[in-house]
Amino acid sequence: MKRKSLVAVAVLSASMMLAACGNAGQNNAGSNATQAVAQSNSKYYFTAKNTDLKIDGNLTEYTTALGEPSGGYYEAKSCAFDGMDKFYTYDSFVLQGYQKDGQDRLYAITLSDDSVKTKEGVRIGDKKDKVVSAYGNEYKEENGQLIYTSENTSLVFVIKGDTVESIQYTMSN
Amino acid sequence: MKKIRNGIIAVVIPVICLYLLQCLLTPKYATDIKEGAMIAEYYNSNKNHDVLILGDCEVYENISPATMWENNGITSYIRGSAEQLIWQSYYLLEDTLRYETPKVVVLNVLAMQQAEAKSEAYNRMTIDGMKWSKAKLHSIQESMTEKETLSSYIFPLLRYHSRWSDLSFEDVSYMWKTPNVTTNGYLMQTGVRPVTNLPKAVPLANYQFSDRNYEYLNKIAQLCKEHHIELVLIKAPSVFPHWYDEWEEQIQNFAKEQGVSYLNLAKASEEIGIDYTQDTYDYGQHMNVFGAEKTSVYLADILQNRYNLQDHRNDENKQLIEQWNRLTADYHMERQDKLSQAESGK
Q1: Which of A37-41, A96-100, B96-100 comes out lowest in average pLDDT?
Q2: Which helix (H) or strand (E) holds A150?
Q3: Does residue A91 sit at the B interface (CB-CB below 8 Å)?
Q4: Closest to B205 (Cβ–Cβ): which among A30, A71, A158?
Q5: CA distance B190 to A125
Q6: Is B14 within a domain?
């Protein structure tokens, strides 16, 4: 009887030790789910064909509104996991999507030539001064990039010399 | 005396229970996300490889050791894992050297552009399968993301105890031993998804590889020199993600400074005979079995000619030949099965 009690105590203590771990490992290591990012009202978004393209917005709605991507569609699977990055190449910009909760969301917009400009009027080839006068001094400078962040969106200007070489709206970390 | 015995029982039984729970709850990666099982699988192999191949998915899906054996009699093993980082490759090399000293180490350089660990999930797939050693400990310390803890690597139960609701038959079946999911580290893909178009390469603000990656690439080169191993850097064939000229130049310079070989197999695609309408299963990011076999024939020829690697097919060691014959027979069976399945699924 005593021995049985001892075993019961031992098993119970093992269970308690396990329970004591609490929720330390709640995030599932076997999943590549991107962290949920609440859709926000960032002041940085891009407009094309009268459609406001917002980071983390519904990609399917956007691509339906924009029509067939002239430069084609490409999808890149995550190594080992089911996640998929999707690329829609339009005339002067590329939309990059990701999957969250079974839905395609907008992850990034990359402007690819100077025929399009941001809502605030900056385009590839403009001078750095023009970026600063359009967006102000509240930026982070990192490796030659000017990064403006609002809510869930970072607007990134890659500057080469004194000139804007690339413009990208992307999900902020 | 009784008190001591009772005390021991009170300690031993919980430890055994916890150990059993850990065996049950740790992911097995046998049928899903097989990439997680690859690193541990190496320890079951006969450690007599002339060539060790390290790197990310661009090695374990693009190079077939069975083909390198069949065409050149080269014995090789791929210690690849998803998103394997440069320092993780270094520690896997250290780990491998505890068991064998290959003549050639092939390292894929795509990971040089990755400065930080991406996620715990990828860390786990590379590190959890390593046997305990200083190399594993250092790999953990160098890789951990903000929310990870060393204790959860030492006691995986701390990490996986919440998998109760995800348990499947696989967790019970493979509680003690998981089946091999690769052929000497090669994870076979048989689908065909041709390249039709590619997204434009986005200009980057900074093309410079990180100091840490250079530090570990140097350490790999030094470790190889200390063990009289030839180091061969490769960029495996793929068309996405984009491999920038600025990255290419840095690798070329490094190889020149260190006196090691660098093969850009992506640039050699035509020479290799890769047909991106047939030889890729995911629009040009990785090879399928057809592309992997072509790449392996090309790579094996270069390695054999450049480093005089022995053709073991006529080796006096009959056991070795039998071992590889079994391995290639299994490989062809898997190939046939998968291709038949794909055919019938059309």
Answers
A1: A37-41
A2: strand A145-150
A3: no
A4: A158
A5: 45
A6: no
Strand runs labelled E in chain B: 51-55, 76-80, 104-108, 230-235, 261-264
- Write down the pLDDT at residue A4: 57
Tell me the shortest Cα–Cα distance from A121 to chain B, in angstroms: 20
In degrees, rounded to 5, the angle at the alpha carbon of residue B24 between the alpha carbons of residues B18 and B29 is 135
Q: Provide the number of CB pairs (under 8 Å) joining chain A to chain B.
A: 127
Query: How far is the alpha carbon of A151 from chain B, nearest alpha carbon, in Å?
Result: 22
In a domain, B226, yes or no: yes
- Nearest alpha carbon to residue B77 among B57, B98, B102, B112: B102
**CATH number for the segment(s) A46-171:** 3.40.33.10
Per residue in A106-127, pLDDT tens?
A: 999 999 899 999 999 999 999 9
- Chain A, 111 to 150: residues with Cβ < 8 Å from chain B are 112, 142-145
Assigned token pair, B208: 């410079």
Cβ contact, residue pair A74, B241, below 8 Å: no
With respect to residue B142, please indicate whether it lies within any of the assigned structural domains: no
Q: Is the dihedral of CA B68, B70, B75, B81 positive or negative?
A: positive
- CATH number of B259's domain: 3.40.50.1110
- Residues B124, A29: C-beta atoms closer than 8 Å: yes
Q: Looking at this predicted complex, what is its ipTM? A: 0.71
Largest CA distance in chain A: 85
Amino acid at B64: S
What residues of A are in contact with residue B56 (Cβ under 8 Å)? 79
Q: Please work out, in degrees rounded to the nearest 5, the angle formed at the alpha carbon of residue A170 by the alpha carbons of A165 and A173.
A: 120
The residue written with tokens 């693009």 in the block is B62
Domain with B229 in it: 36-117+181-345
Instruction: Give the C-alpha separation, B146 to A27, whole Å.
Output: 13
| Residue A160: C-alpha distances to residues A125, A164, B206, B208, B210 (Å) | 10, 6, 10, 14, 20
Question: B29 and B181 in contact (C-beta within 8 Å)?
Answer: yes
Spatial distance between the Cα atoms of A42 and A36, rounded to a whole number of angstroms: 16
Query: Structure tokens of B317?
Result: 């060691």
State the Cα–Cα distance between residues A33 and B272, nearest whole angstrom: 37
Q: Can you give the pLDDT at residue B100?
A: 98
| Amino acid type, A131 | V
Name the domain count of chain B: 1
Q: Has residue B336 been placed in a domain?
A: yes
